[in-house]
Amino acid sequence: MSLKQKAIKGFSWTIFEGIFSQGAIFIVGIILARLLTPEDFGVVGIITAIITVTNSVVEAGFGSALIRKVDANEKDYNTVFYTNLISAICLYLLLWVLAPVIADFFETEILINLIKVSGLILVVNGIVIIQRTLLTKQLDFKKLGIFAVISSLLAGGAAIYLAYQNYGVWSLIAFSVLRPLLNSIMLWLSSNWKPKLQFSKNSFTELFNFGYKLLITNLVNTVYKNIYYFVIGKHFTPSALGFYTRADQFQTPFSTNITFAIRRISFPILSNFQNDKQNLKIKFIQFIRYSMFLNFTIMLVIAAVAKPLVLITIGEKWETSIIYLQLLCIPGMLYPLQILHLNLLLIKGYSNLNLRLEIIKKIILIPIIFITVNYGIVYMIYGLILFSIIEYFINSFYTKKIISYTLKDQFKDFLPFFILSFIPFIAMISVTFTDLNVFIMLPTQLITGIVVFILMNEILQQKEYKMAKEKLMSLLKKRINEK
Question: What's the predicted TM-score (pTM) here?
Answer without folding.
Answer: 0.75
